[in-house]
């Protein structure tokens, strides 16, 4: 159409092909060699017990340093990898790498730890997925409870019935399932009972305002109460201040994650960080007993 109508139309077409689409094309091209080029790595963000401050688990977050584009943030490349289906291959790399790292930690001073990884709809729809999880656990001599899968509400909606049985299988094995970014998606509360979840992650968007907005505070309070009544573990995401941590603790949130506790850090920095958390938790306990 653009060609037939002459130069004006062609320009219109070029303009309309916006920056985002061009960006996606460039990213898509560069992503194709990212695994082979060993351009991915994982960083790990601590999730701590709200009550004791002890490390309960870590979330693995993907980082990409592209040879041609430099560092590219997940929010820019994950959607592109989802559009092309490449996320299945990338997600398998994440699963294997996180489990390999867990195995390394298990053998060292850190001991047994749980890692949660983010999983896309495409991965869950892949008939090979449960087997891949099983293999990754076995290869590294891990207990299934050491692995948790973070799904978003979109994953549940997109796949419906099949996802339910995949999640039932994984839960049956002992793998944890958590619902990420809770409250931002197309929340239907029926998901909470339907999908074999054991953890709810309250999105940063709500946590952000709890100190200053009564509405946010009430909302988080309600989410925590509801989660508790369903027997779910609650993690607050994006905890950036001591004030937020203290409110969340009072509201009965079980676990905290965010820059206030730790940035995502490389694997080799985690043992020292866990040590610091342990001594801080011990000091807090002594102070409480006194
Ligand atoms: P997410 O799973 O909700 O991860 C939390 C994001 O919030 C991470 O961003 C983390 O670095 C950031 N964050 C943590 N604490 C704070 C805080 O206190 N304040 C603020 N402002 N941000 C905080 P990141 O690493 O850029 O990842 C963004 C999203 O990309 C993730 O959101 C997840 O949806 C996706 N993602 C990351 N790694 C993977 C992966 O391996 N597979 C898939 N499918 N998605 C991934
Ligand atoms: Mg997540
Ligand atoms: Mg999240
Ligand atoms: Mg998110």
UniProtKB/TrEMBL annotation:
EAL domain mapped to chain residues: 24-278
Keyword annotations of the record: Membrane, Transmembrane, Transmembrane helix
Signal peptide start and end residues: none
Lineage: superkingdom: Bacteria
Name this protein carries in UniProt: EAL domain-containing protein
Full-protein interval shown: 451 to 740 of 740
């Amino acid at each position: 159409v653009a060609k037939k109508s002459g130069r004006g139309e062609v320009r219109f077409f070029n303009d309309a092909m916006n920056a985002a689409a061009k960006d996606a094309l460039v990213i898509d091209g560069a992503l194709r060699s990212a695994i082979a080029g060993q351009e991915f790595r994982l960083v790990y963000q601590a999730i701590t017990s709200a009550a004791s401050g002890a490390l309960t688990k870590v979330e693995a977050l993907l980082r990409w340093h592209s040879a041609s584009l430099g560092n590219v943030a997940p929010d820019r490349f994950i959607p592109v990898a989802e559009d092309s289906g490449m996320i299945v291959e990338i997600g398998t790399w994440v699963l294997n790498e996180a489990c390999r790292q867990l195995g390394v930690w298990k053998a060292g001073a850190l001991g047994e730890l749980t890692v949660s990884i983010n999983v896309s709809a495409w991965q869950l729809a892949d008939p090979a997925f449960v087997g891949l999880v099983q293999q990754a656990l076995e290869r590294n001599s891990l207990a299934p409870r050491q692995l948790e899968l973070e799904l978003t509400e979109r994953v549940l909606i997109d796949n419906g019935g099949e996802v339910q049985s995949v999640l039932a299988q994984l839960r049956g094995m002992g793998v944890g399932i958590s619902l990420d970014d809770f409250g931002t998606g197309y929340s239907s509360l029926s998901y909470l009972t339907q999908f074999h979840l054991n953890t709810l992650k309250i999105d940063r968007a709500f946590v952000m305002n709890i100190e200053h907005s009564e509405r946010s505070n009430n909302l988080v309070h309600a989410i925590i109460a509801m989660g508790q009544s369903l027997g779910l573990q609650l993690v607050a995401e994006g905890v950036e201040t001591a004030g937020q941590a203290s409110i969340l603790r009072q509201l009965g949130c079980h676990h905290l994650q965010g820059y206030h506790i730790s940035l995502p850090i490389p694997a080799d920095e985690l043992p020292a960080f866990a040590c610091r958390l342990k001594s801080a938790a011990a000091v807090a306990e002594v102070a409480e007993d006194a």
